[in-house]
Amino acid sequence: MLIAVTQIIVLLANSGFINRSPETVTLTEIKQVEADLKEVIKSLNEINKHPNLKEDYVEVKKVVKKSKPAPVVVKQKKVESKPKVRKTLVMTPVTVVAPEPEEVINQERITEAFKAQYIKHDSKGNFLEEDNKKWTCVHDTKNSLMWEVKAKDDAMRNANNLYSWYNPNISDYLGSTIKGIPNGGRCKGEAGCDTHAYVKAMNEQNYCGHSDWHLPTKDQMQTLVYLDNGDESVKINKQYFPETMPSWYWTSTENSNKDELAWYILFRNGLALNDLKERSKHIRLVRMTKINVSNKE
């Protein structure tokens, strides 16, 4: 029945009757509608009698409702936001090293700088250029010793002065009983004319900027012997030790067998000899910069 009604509606729609605007209908149109209805009723009767004929008379059209186009969804790529890192200013501790005060160049550093055996120094211990014509002491870089230099214009350091061998403290550390003779020489200047008085006076005046001068040992004094100077009457390097006598120079080394004797170096030929402590001889003081030499032989 539902199909028949649908068929009638389709006929009316096709004839334009349903959608027609309200106006005067002609007789011809009414008759046409009646004829159409009769055909529909006839068809319905045939369908009722023969249900299998339904497909021949009725065309069921599926009306597909056009759906509105789905809205376009733009998928945005999800960007994972990185957690904000809070920047922290890390203060790295900095060690500020204050500049060291200006250092006085000593003889050891000069040795490394120049690599020369002998270096000249002035009265305050400052090093001098090689061509300097006046110097007060000489550093022997080979043997790590600093030597006194004799001078004509200095009464106490005059090369002609002579001194007796004397050490008032000798029995306290060497076991010797013979101390020598005080003031037994012939000299000029403020110091007494013995080895002990001269050493004391030189240290008190801080000679060449130092106060650790002493009478050299035999081994130390022998480092000054210089045999390669040809016909020179004195066997020493006169380029650095010009005011040197071709004579004998006391050392602090005693004779190990006889306490009354001490060693001296004869610079006329460079030999080491013994003599009585009371006899006067020349002297030249020394100070050590690195090494120590035995005082007994």
Key structural traits:
297 residues, alpha+beta, 4-stranded antiparallel sheet, 3-stranded antiparallel sheet, 7 helices, 7 strands, 11% strand, rod-shaped, disordered C terminus
- How many helix segments? 7
Helix share, percent: 10-25%
Order of helices and strands: HHHHEEEHHHEEEE
Poorly predicted sequence stretches spanning 5 or more consecutive residues: 56-65, 291-296
The strand count comes to: 7
Radius of gyration: 66 Å
- Gap between N and C termini: 154 Å
Structural class: alpha+beta
**Major beta sheet summary:** 4 strands, antiparallel
Mean pLDDT: 77
Strand order of the largest sheet: 1-2-3-7
Strand fraction band?
Answer: 5-15%
Oligomeric form: single chain
Q: Shape from CA axes?
A: rod-shaped
Total number of distinct structural domains:
2
Account of the 3D structure:
With 297 residues, the protein is of the alpha+beta class. The chain has two domains: 2-19 and 27-57; 107-288, no CATH class. Helices cover 23% and strands 11% of the residues. The chain has helices at 2-15, 27-49, 54-57, 107-114, 170-173, 195-204, 218-222; strands at 118-121, 137-140, 145-148, 248-254, 261-266, 271-276, 286-288. Strands 1-2-3-7 form a four-stranded antiparallel beta sheet, with helices on one face. A three-stranded antiparallel beta sheet has the order 4-5-6. A hairpin with a 4-residue loop joins strand 2 and strand 3 (145-148). The longest helix is centred in the first third of the chain and has 23 residues, at 27-49. It is rod-shaped and about 180 Å long. The model is unreliable at 56-65 and 291-296 (pLDDT under 50).
